Amino acid sequence: MNGPVALKLADPIVPQIIQILRQAIIEMRLKPGEALSEKEVALRYGVSRQPVREAFIKLAEAGLLQVLPSRGTYVVKISVREVLNARFVREAIECALVRSAAELIDPAGVARIEQLVAEQKLAAEAGDSSRFYALDEAFHRAIADCVECDPALRVVESARAQTDRVRYLSLPDASPLALLIAQHEAILDAIKARDPERAEAAMRTHLREILSALPRLAERFPDVFDRSDVPPHARPMAG
C-alpha cells in the first residue's frame, strides 16, 4: 500500500479501515494472494487490533478477503463466477434504476450527472485512471440517488465489490476510456430526453462491457483470476 492515510479519530474507525483496505484491494496495491496482518495494519494506522479484525471480517463477507483461522488473512483472487454473478445483479437493478431516473430526474440531477461526465473527460485526458474510476462510481450513484431507493443502492454497492477490481484492472487497456465515456453520454442523453427505454438499453450496453473485457483480462493476468465454476448464464467464459 501507499503511505498511511490519517484516520479521523472522531469518526467510527472500522468503516474508515474498510474503505482504505477496499480501495487498496481494488487498485491492486494489495494483490490477490497477499497476506494481511492485523498487527501490522493496526500499527500502520495507530489503532487497536479490534477494529482491524472487524474490518477484515466485513471485507471477507464482501468476498475480498479470506480469513483462515490460525493461518492468516489473504486477499482473494478475482472470482470470474462472482464477478459475472455481480454483473448480473447490477444489470437487473441498475436498469430499473435508470428507467426510474429518466422519469423522475430534476434539473439539479441532470446538472450533477453532466458535471461527472465532464470531469471524467478531464480525467481521461490526464490519463488518471484512479480519478476516472472514482468518477465512474459517482456517476452510477448519482443515477441511483435520483430514485431515492436506498435498499437498491446498497445491493448495487455490495455487488460492486466484485466488479470493481475488474473495472479498475481494465482501465485503460481492455475498456478504452473514450468508449466508457461515450456509453455514459448515451445514458445521460436518454435520461435528459426522459426516455426510459433508451436509458435502460444504454445502461445494459454499458454494464455488459465487462463481458468483453473479462476474458481478455483473465487471459492476460492468469495469476489474478479464479476461473473455476463459471455460472450457467456465462458459460462462454468456461472455455
From TrEMBL:
Keywords: DNA-binding, Transcription, Transcription regulation. Gene3D superfamilies: GntR ligand-binding domain-like, Winged helix-like DNA-binding domain superfamily/Winged helix DNA-binding domain. Coiled coil: none annotated. Signal peptide: none annotated. Residues 11-78 form the HTH gntR-type domain. It comes from the Bacteria. SUPFAM superfamilies: GntR ligand-binding domain-like, Winged helix' DNA-binding domain. CDD domains: WHTH_GntR. InterPro entries: GntR_C, TF_FadR/GntR_C, Tscrpt_reg_HTH_GntR, WH-like_DNA-bd_sf, WH_DNA-bd_sf. Transmembrane segments: none annotated. This is GntR family transcriptional regulator. It comes from Bosea massiliensis.
